[in-house]
Amino acid sequence: MKYIDEFQDPALARRLLDEIHATVTRPWALMEVCGGQTHTIIRHGIDQLLPDQVELIHGPGCPVCVTPLEVIDKALEIASRPGVIFCSFGDMLRVPGTGRDLFRVRSEGGDVRVVYSPLDALTIARQNPDREVVFFGIGFETTAPPNAMTVHQAKKLGIRNFSLLVSHVRVPPAIEAIMLSPSCRVQGFLAAGHVCSVMGVAEYPELAARHRVPIVVTGFEPLDILEGVRRTVRQLERGEHTVENAYARAVRPEGNPAALAMLADVFEVTDRAWRGIGVIPGSGWRLADRYREFDAEHRFQVTGITTQEPAECRSGEVLQGLLKPNECAAFGTVCTPRTPLGATMVSSEGACAAYYLYRRLDLQAAPAAPTTPLEASPVG
Ligand code: SF4
Predict the structure, then answer these.
(1) How far, in Å, is the centroid of ligand 1 from the Cα of 3?
(2) For residue 63, what are the contacts with CB-CB under 8 A and spacing of at least 6?
């Protein structure tokens, strides 16, 4: 399959690995920002093929995982209201809120529907003018443009019974927060290629220079990851800290101008809370005032939300790269994809789900050394 098979070529992977092994002279800790990259790394065992000196740390780039519990609880509250049709991508339905999830709301009579595009939700709104239709708009710079376009269309077409529950987040402020954290061990970043295909790379040179950290825009296939690691390690060994684009087949330096224009029209930057991490200044988007009538939080005025995270869930530490999923006592026992305590076990981009899907049998087979192999050649 074009653009997939050739980026999984074992002989080329071996060559890249040989180069990395030949380059490394001392320990380096790299963070892959995106949960999709984490899954590629764990699924293909890339971390186990790298030199022991190269540690890959999981980043917070899983959109489902970082959506704050308060927003999940607001979604549950709105979806429970009579007359509401609540639309979402499927991966949000099993994300635990305080005490229940959207599947539970649906089983209790709520009209919760899985859609494949925010425009599907707009169609539902047109077909049901006597109902309130809400779309759950979460995610990074990748999902924000279609959501912005949908709100733009709703306004243009005069569809007033549509609204967006917004929880969009942005990558560069998260990198800034990670670098400013006293516990930060990250020395180089594999930036999320799909985010840069929308946003371009303009925000990164200043970050790289100020924190003296290499940032390599990286794709999602195994060779993409290896090339991202190779370039990052090469910079670190040379004492460099620049921005490189290792995903040029998808990323132009200027990004996607049409998507950027839509984002600028519909959203404005705001502070945003990240689940398990806290508020990061300027790390999110909200609807601009001229689109406020389409803001579900404004329309439904949900108040009195009291959130409560499960005490045993350590997903906040997992999201900050401070803990490997298998180091959480609940991993694979009380917390599984069927009985998730945290969003990182639910999401198809969550680090806990990646470990459970691809590595739990290895971990069970080697109970005496549950963390050492992962730390010796850790995961991104
Ligand atoms: S394994 Fe489960 S309980 Fe532990 S951090 Fe991950 S999601 Fe939370």
Answers:
(1) 34
(2) 35, 138, 139, 140, 143, 169, 347, 349
Q: What is the average pLDDT score of the chain?
A: 92
Share of the chain above pLDDT 70, in %: 95
Q: How many residues does the chain have?
A: 380
User: Would you say residue 224 has pLDDT above 80?
Assistant: yes
- Residue 32's H or E segment, with its range, is strand 28-34
DSSP category for residue 251: -
Cβ of 110 closer than 6 Å to ligand 1, yes or no, is no
Contact 315, 366 (CB under 8 A): no
Taking the C-alpha atoms of 271, 273, 274 and 280 in order, what is their torsion angle to the nearest 10 degrees?
Answer: 40
Question: Which two three-digit tokens encode residue 121?
Answer: 């939700």
pTM of the predicted structure, to 2 decimals? 0.90
In order of 75, 103, 340, the CA distances from 92 in angstroms are 10, 9, 12
* Whether the CB of 64 sits within 6 Å of ligand 1: no
Is 164:135 a contact under the CB 8 Å cutoff? Answer: yes
Instruction: Please tell me if the CB atom of residue 166 comes closer than 6 angstroms to any atom of ligand 1.
Output: no
323 lines ligand 1 (CB under 6 A): no
Q: What is the gyration radius of the CA atoms in the chain, in angstroms?
A: 21
